[in-house]
């Protein structure tokens, strides 16, 4: 699937949730999982049950801790290197192409921060491998997008950095804890502040 211009999604994102067209939004609502949770929704309307946060934030830490992700086995699993994946031979990065089109349609004075989220060191390609070289080219494509647009920053947290070597910052190789999330949040805030300082 990598390198294919159509960029097929393994787990399709519900783009309709953010569609400005009301009809498109309404057409996305009838889904099996909506019917599945109808009882909960009726309970919410009746004043029972726990509502989701108004800002949509979901803290998955209690769920991970409840599944034993602080246990010795989980910490050991975290440090097992991920299996080597075949590097994309096409040299194409369709997501970067699509993102370039999206950025071109945004107001030029809009502040944009592009970020590759943190990954535990054992979840990154082995240093010196072709897979690592390919990932480096991919990250460079996104960095170039940011460099080529005003008021745009690129933050690369998917790399070998001290925070990504600390098991205490992660539940698994890709799900990081609040402590690291706050570090990322501060980095985004600093980038925005730097780009708007002259205003």
In short:
By secondary structure, the protein is mainly α. It has helices spanning 22-28, 32-36, 38-45, 61-66, 72-78, 94-104, 130-147, 178-196, and strands spanning 112-116, 152-156.
Low-confidence stretches: none
Helix-strand category: mainly alpha
Shape label: globular
Main sheet: which strands, in order across?
1-2
Describe the structure.
With 199 residues, this protein is mainly α. The protein has a domain at 58-196. It has 8 helices and 2 strands; from the N terminus they run ααααααβαβα. Strands 1-2 form a two-stranded parallel ribbon. It is globular. The N and C termini lie far apart (43 Å). The model has no long low-confidence stretch (mean pLDDT 87). This is GDSL-like Lipase/Acylhydrolase family.
Task: Throw out a few tags for this protein.
two-stranded parallel sheet, globular, 199 residues, mainly alpha, single chain, 2 strands
